């Protein structure tokens, strides 16, 4: 009987964690898509973008009390973006992807009251822009 | 090893890997979907923009399981259900919000929220994305 009650209590609550990804101090453009603009505002074509590295960041957000209290809160990735792009010699981040996954601990946190975690992975292509971001067609026209 | 130490170790291990989850990506989307203040490569000052609409998108993975018993027959049936958004879900939302990937428009993100939770019977993962559809001054 007691076991059933405990099981019922656990099943009622959900443990977990949430976070908000921000980059207010990023010194390069970060795009979650394939689209980026050059200095003059035109969309860069694939020939102008060269992947020179991979942006990679993993972290574990923590929350408690049914995720109402978030210990992680805003996850500022600005410093990591600036650092990794600089090391790779890139100009921007393209195709940023965000993975959100469970912790095994989610199952054991007592009715969501205890601190609980999640797994977040962020990946993206660090790209270098060639030709100062000019259109390839325009450059070809100039050559001809 | 004493019981408290074993429990502590088990708790530490359990915060580790779990392969289930959802990957949020704008696959095949030509429209810039920007996080952060920089909107053009090599330019520090952001271009003037005109906000046209709001953008919302969500990627999720959900799993639940349980069992039902028919008391008349005594037959117990275990069930499980898994559902998730497709890899093009966010791209489709962007396509709709930008009038078919209008090359003159950008999406400026205001919220990228990750959420993962679960218990013995269910696991849920969400990446919620919100932003504005804008027309940048330098766009063509």
Textual characterization of the structure:
The complex is a heterodimer of chains A (144) and B (140). Helix content of chain A is 21%, strand content 38%. With 144 residues, chain A is α+β, with helices and mostly antiparallel strands. Chain A has a single domain (2-143), classed as 2-Layer Sandwich (Translation Initiation Factor IF3). The radius of gyration of chain A is 22 Å and the shape is elongated. The N and C termini of chain A lie far apart (85 Å). Chain B has one domain. Chain B is built from two helices and six strands, in the order H-E-E-E-E-H-E-E. Chain B starts with a helix and ends with a strand. The relative contact order of chain B is 0.26.
List the helices and strands and how they pair.
The complex is a heterodimer of chains A (144) and B (140).
Chain A: H1 2-12, E1 15-22, E2 30-31, E3 49-59, E4 62-64, E5 69-70, E6 73-76, H2 78-88, E7 92-102, E8 116-129, H3 136-143
Parallel strand pairs in A: 1-6
Antiparallel strand pairs in A: 3-8, 4-5, 4-8, 7-8
Chain B: H1 3-14, E1 21-24, E2 33-35, E3 49-70, E4 75-84, H2 89-97, E5 106-118, E6 122-136
Parallel strand pairs in B: 2-5
Antiparallel strand pairs in B: 3-4, 3-6, 5-6
Any key phrases for this structure?
heterodimer; A: 144 residues; alpha+beta; two-stranded parallel ribbon; 3 helices; elongated; B: five-stranded mixed β-sheet
Largest sheet of chain B: 5 strands, mixed
Widest sheet: strand ordering of chain B: 2-5-6-3-4
Low-confidence stretches of chain B: none
Number of helices of chain B: 2
Average pLDDT of chain A, rounded to a whole number, is: 81
Helix content of chain B: 10-25%
- Secondary structure tally: strands of chain B: 6
Radius of gyration of chain B: 22 Å
Beta content of chain B: over 45%
Biggest chain pair contact, residues each? A-B, 65 and 63 residues
Secondary-structure element order of chain A, as H and E?
HEEEEEEHEEH
Question: Total domains of chain B, how many?
Answer: 1
Number of domains of chain A: 1
Low-confidence stretches of chain A: none
Class derived from helix and strand content of chain A: alpha+beta
